[in-house]
Design brief:
Elements lengths: L1 E9 L3 E12 L5 E6 L7 H15 L6 E6 L4 H6 L23 H13 L4 E6 L5 E9 L4 H8 L6 E4 L10 H7 L4 E7 L6 H17 L14 E3 L5 E5 L4 E5 L6 E2 L4 E7 L4 E7 L4 E7 L3 E2 L4 E7 L3
Parallel strand pairs: 3-4, 3-5, 5-8, 6-7, 7-9
Antiparallel strand pairs: 1-2, 2-4, 6-8, 6-15, 10-17, 11-13, 11-16, 12-15, 13-14, 15-17
Helix pairs in contact: 1-6
Length: 309
């Protein structure tokens, strides 16, 4: 059943409307919320929303409880391929808990939070920017890891990252849900403005593993993969460009590399020169890797989860 979570009048007889689809099954009072599209250029979650519903629709007798699906928390951003809310230049994921009597963005944030609060678990699905690709990962605010981590391990992701990343910081949707007593985690995977079918399948499998553990799904499930675990800032090494140029990848995101392995090269198309070779500073899992090749000084090239010298 599709219902309106929040609606605001816009100029020229238009409306900003946030909708959800609710699927109800018998035999359980548990509730799971699947949210995505808070950043308009992050589309990986759109396919996940479809695939989860497709699987339930194929075997409705195996679903129990309530599933609320919010595919477009920032519909204007999705329509205009804009990360924030168009014309306001605001990151919606920095506006929670919002304010019912506040600005348009604060009002929408408050209604989303009100609607999702009280669920037995909530999952906020993100993608990376258009510049870098992320290995499928669960991100958890450190303050709330004890009540989330067991469920997060079931989500079939490659990495479980306990970290104060922007998507789980204060004033984010997931942080505020946890603060209000609703267990919630962030999924980050793929790349902006595109979708990755295999990642959507991977997460969909994981969601059904979690639903089964919550006694909301009695159909078949996979055995979820065991994620690599990181809860120390020192576990991660950021690879940053020291010059401008054109970055040519020599490895793929998700590869395990050894110290000294060649990860990529920065070249000069103008002069036909090799400017730099980017080598792994240590052994580890390359869980972030740059896709957009134009780089400046300070551009992120990748992130490496340290697994040795």
């Amino acid at each position: 059943m599709v219902t309106v979570v929040a609606s605001v009048d816009l100029p020229v007889d238009e409306k900003l409307t946030v909708k959800k689809n609710t699927i109800k099954g018998e035999g359980s009072d548990k509730r799971f919320c699947l949210l995505t599209g808070i950043h308009g250029d992050e589309l990986e979650g759109q396919l996940v929303c479809y695939k989860v519903q497709e699987r339930i629709n194929a075997d409705p007798q195996n679903f129990h409880g309530t599933l609320d699906i919010y595919p477009a928390l920032n519909p204007l951003g999705i329509d205009s391929i804009t990360r924030g809310i168009p014309a306001f230049d605001l990151d919606m994921n920095r506006t929670f808990p919002g304010e019912a009597d506040g600005t348009m963005t604060e009002y929408i944030a408050s209604k989303i939070l009100e609607d999702a609060s009280g669920a037995d678990f909530a999952l906020d699905v993100h993608a990376s920017s258009i510049f870098i690709r992320e290995l499928p990962q669960v991100r958890i605010p450190p303050e709330f890891k004890d009540k989330i981590i067991d469920k997060a391990k079931l989500l079939n992701m490659d990495l479980l990252w306990i970290h104060n990343n922007g998507s789980v910081q204060e004033n984010s949707l997931v942080y505020t849900l946890n603060q209000n007593g609703t267990p919630a985690a962030v999924i980050d995977m793929g790349i902006g403005m595109r979708y990755t079918s295999e990642f959507a399948d991977q997460l969909t499998d994981g969601i059904f593993c979690l639903l089964a553990q919550m006694e909301m799904w009695t159909g078949s499930t996979i055995k979820p993969r065991e994620p690599v675990y990181s809860d120390q800032a020192g576990d991660m090494t950021a690879l940053v460009s020291k010059m401008a140029g054109f970055f040519v990848r020599k490895v793929d995101c998700g590869q395990r590399v050894q110290k000294g392995d060649l990860l990529g090269e920065i070249i000069s198309p103008l002069e036909g020169k090799l400017l730099a070779q980017i080598k792994a500073p240590c052994a580890g899992l390359l869980f972030t890797l740059r896709e957009y090749p134009i780089v400046e000084i300070g551009s992120t090239l990748g992130r490496l989860l340290n697994e040795g010298n």
